[in-house]
Design a protein that fits this description.
Elements (H helix, E strand, L loop, with lengths): L2 E5 L2 E8 L2 E10 L5 H17 L3 H14 L5
Antiparallel strand pairs: 1-2, 2-3
Length: 73
């Protein structure tokens, strides 16, 4: 199960893939009002990584997820 953590100005996704702890910058500012969006994005990314999708598919998923979050380029 994915979780999020504040590091400075950004939310980071944290989850385990193949027994290894992974952390990814979500590119979402660490405002409390955006925490639910960050959690949803982290869970979506974890699901895609567990499926073993390729890099291009992963980037498309990431781009689509960012479009859903206000305040992200």
């Amino acid at each position: 199960m994915a979780s999020v953590q504040q590091k400075g100005k950004w939310w980071y996704a944290r989850f385990r893939i193949d027994g290894k702890q992974t952390s990814r910058n979500l590119g979402i500012e660490s405002k409390p009002s955006l925490k639910k969006k960050a959690i949803a994005l982290a869970e979506k990314l974890e699901l895609e990584l567990r499926k073993g999708v390729g890099a291009a598919k992963f980037q498309n998923t990431l781009r689509e997820a960012y479009e859903e979050v206000p305040g992200t380029p």
